[in-house]
Specification:
Number of helices: 23
Pfam family, one: PIP5K
Keywords: ATP-binding, Kinase, Membrane, Nucleotide-binding, Transferase, Transmembrane, Transmembrane helix
Shape: elongated
InterPro entries: PInositol-4-P-4/5-kinase_core (IPR002498), PInositol-4/5-P-5/4-kinase (IPR023610)
Distance between the termini: 105 Å
Radius of gyration: 33 Å
Number of strands: 16
GO biological process, one term: phosphatidylinositol phosphate biosynthetic process
GO molecular function: 1-phosphatidylinositol-4-phosphate 5-kinase activity; ATP binding
Largest sheet: 7 strands, antiparallel
């Protein structure tokens, strides 16, 4: 045996050959554990990797994490087995040689990447709840690639950083500085505690926020069973690894006890059991069907299996479907509440700082309206709202629906019902029919939450494509509520306004999720439900030239399937070809609308123009034309072709963020004269009038 000074001068720069041989004679069991267990892990992970490569639909969420964890375990099994063989052949632990550097680099990459992916896998339930699955998956891939590159660069730059560790496995080792060793160990402990505590929170969160009813019950249970088994086992193994790693370090610097050397062997055994156990859990996941001969599975069964594996995506879709059903049910129930049930929304006062406007008025500047327009509404009517609760029992009672339909338990709020009801009646809109749950059932089943552009909001089109539900950000709700009196009064006095009407602003509050609100608006679909194949071209224009061309990158694309922009319009259409008398009205109405939005300090609104072929359904179109000729205008160049026109997305307020956005784009492009979309309201309005309205609807 060696003296304490000889035996425990154990920082990696001082572990000599005799110490390594002595350690292996004392505790050889971990070497044989590697030799016995590693092949099982290797063949199990190889089978899983093969299944992923064979059925690529397994990738996604959470398949990416499972695949990466499997790959890291596959690599680690090779490292463990080759290290054990090295020891058997050479009768000593790896030296500072090429073998040590190669296996050490692999071990270090595996350690970081595996733990990161296990942690992110644990975070998926929270990402599901907060509608961030896709962004989480993208970030994970970025981190994986980045960390691999960083580790390789560290090894290249710091030539001697890969060395044998205290437990005989080569890796990026701690320094021979006692303080740094303990800092690294404490950091590892804190990361483990975060990983463990967050994993528990995620399980509780998922159980609480994913409803137990209906089709979600099976998917929720399936994921939680597999999730809890995998995360629970990984937590236990990581906890034990942390304990033995700490004992090794403390024994090296503080305790100097020979009997504690067993922790080095136990650390290796636990690591081997950890990767084997994770492989077995993944291998036995029923959705992978690894234990069944693939030739015995029908194509339909395999397809179902692949869909079940991405169970978080399934849950995500189910939650969106339930959310949409809840919205439709809430809209219908609120429409049936008697007007005398309105209340003041004292608990829903606007937070003036939420949208960064800095305005001190809860209703905006009203002075411009007082002298010019008649006042059909009162401030009290603006401050009213309808409030009701919905759940599955209320749904069946109020709507007489007998089929199995599930909704969230929610508090539903409709703002200013008298105001919105006036415009609904004026435009002869049947909201209850458009959002009838039964009539929309097939649309709901197919609903995946289509993206609403950069904002990340989503649209839902009613079964007849007459109306749209669009979710809103809190800042947009604040912006509109502060100006609701202005908008209502302006649109009352300007029946030919092209500002697309909002027929209701709603807020839904989930009862299971405190302080969680979903805001949405109901607005008209300006295509009027025409089939998609009759919409020839769609343009979204802002009057800007910066980044406002689509066809430059897609010159041969089908124009009917794209949303084109300003420069595309001027290349293809040049202008709107309509009768001169209508052209003057349209030009003046658009300019009036732009000036109104400018006075409201709003920017970034768009002029949406759809060019639609009504040749086959012109008789159907006639019912829409009475009093709305300014919105739906026949072309004088092509018979049966109509322009559908509206100003959309007008709830963006000029604030500090928009000012920074404009300056940033100018700096990035190194062009201080850049005509960005984000401009002050007066500049945006003038550009909208001069470079857009007067160009597409020129006055002779």
């Amino acid at each position: 045996m060696y003296s304490d000074d000889e035996l425990y001068d154990c920082t990696y720069n001082h572990i000599d050959e005799n110490y390594r041989k002595q350690r292996l004679k004392l505790f050889p069991i971990d070497i044989w554990v590697f030799i016995i267990l590693s092949p099982f892990t290797f063949f199990g992970t190889s089978k899983i990797v093969y299944q992923f490569l064979k059925d690529t639909k397994l990738f996604g969420i959470p398949g990416d994490s499972v695949f990466v964890i499997t790959i890291t375990n596959w690599i680690l099994s090779i490292v463990q087995f080759s290290t054990a063989i090295y020891v058997v052949i050479n009768e000593e632990a790896p030296l500072m040689n090429a073998f040590c550097k190669i296996t050490g680099l692999a071990t270090s990459i595996v350690f970081v990447i595996s733990n990161l992916n296990i942690f992110v896998y644990a975070a998926y339930p929270l990402a599901l709840v907060y509608n961030a699955l896709q962004s989480t998956a993208r970030l994970l891939r970025i981190f994986n690639y980045s960390l691999v590159i960083i580790i390789i660069l560290i090894v290249i730059i710091e030539n001697d950083i890969v060395t044998p560790t205290l437990n005989g496995i080569c890796a990026i080792s701690a320094t021979n500085n006692e303080t740094m060793d303990f800092i690294i160990s404490i950091s590892y402990l804190l990361i483990f505690l975060l990983f463990g505590s967050m994993s528990v929170i995620y399980v509780i969160t998922l159980k609480k926020l994913i409803p137990k009813e209906s089709t979600m019950r099976k998917a929720r249970g399936q994921f939680l069973r597999y999730y809890q088994r995998f995360i629970g086992f990984s937590l236990l193994m990581k906890f034990l690894l942390g304990i033995f790693s700490a004992i090794n370090l403390l024994n090296c610097y503080k305790f100097h006890q020979s009997w504690l050397e067993v922790s080095e062997t136990l650390q290796n055994i636990i690591q081997a059991l950890c990767i084997l156990g994770q492989t077995i859990i993944i291998f036995n996941d029923s959705s992978l069907k690894l234990t069944i001969n693939s030739s015995q599975i029908s194509d339909n069964t395999k397809e179902i299996s692949l869909q079940q594996f991405n169970v978080l995506e399934q849950l995500h879709k189910e939650m969106k479907k339930t959310q949409i059903t809840s919205m439709l049910a809430g809209v219908q129930i609120l429409r049936r509440i008697k007007q005398e049930d309105v209340i003041q929304y004292k608990d829903l006062i606007i937070n003036e700082d939420q949208d960064g406007s800095g305005s001190n008025s809860s209703q905006g500047d009203l002075s411009e309206l007082m002298d010019t327009f008649s006042q059909p509404f009162t401030i009290e009517e603006i401050e009213e709202c309808l409030v009701t609760n919905i759940n599955n029992e209320i749904l069946k009672e109020k709507l007489n629906i007998n089929i199995e339909i599930q909704v969230f338990s929610m508090r539903c709020i409709l703002y200013a019902p008298k105001i919105f009801n006036y415009f609904i009646t004026l435009d002869n809109i049947d909201i209850e029919d458009c959002f009838d749950i039964i009539k929309n059932s097939s649309i709901i089943d197919q609903f995946n939450g289509p993206d609403g552009g950069k904002s990340g909001e989503f649209f839902f089109f009613s079964y007849n494509n007459q109306l749209i539900i669009k979710t809103m950000r809190q800042s947009e709700v604040n912006t509109y509520k502060k100006r609701l009196y202005n908008f209502a009064t302006y649109q009352f006095n300007n029946h030919q306004s092209l500002i697309n009407k909002i027929y209701g602003i709603y807020t839904f509050e989930r009862q299971e999720k405190s302080n969680s609100r979903v805001h949405f608006q109901i607005m008209k679909n300006i295509s009027l439900g025409i089939p998609r194949n009759q919409i020839l071209r769609t343009y979204d224009m802002k009057g800007s030239e910066y980044n406002r061309e689509v066809l430059a990158n897609k010159p041969s694309s089908d124009l009917s399937k794209m949303t084109l922009k300003d420069l595309d319009f001027f290349k293809i259409e040049t202008q709107i070809w309509i009768e001169e008398s209508i052209s003057k009205k349209l030009n003046q109405s658009l300019i009036n609308d732009s000036k109104f939005l400018e006075r409201q300090q709003l920017i970034d609104y768009s002029l949406l123009i759809m060019i639609i072929d009504w040749n086959q359904k012109e008789t159907q179109l006639q019912k829409y034309l009475d009093g709305q000729q300014i919105n739906i205008i026949p072309s004088i160049k092509e018979k049966g072709i109509y322009y559908h026109i509206a100003i959309m997305d007008y709830l963006q307020q000029w604030n500090v963020n928009k000012s920074l956005e404009r300056k940033t784009k100018k700096i990035i492009t190194m062009n201080m004269q850049l005509d960005t979309s984000a401009q002050e309201p007066n500049i945006y309005g003038k550009r909208f009038q001069d470079k857009l309205i007067n160009r597409i609807v020129p006055l002779k």
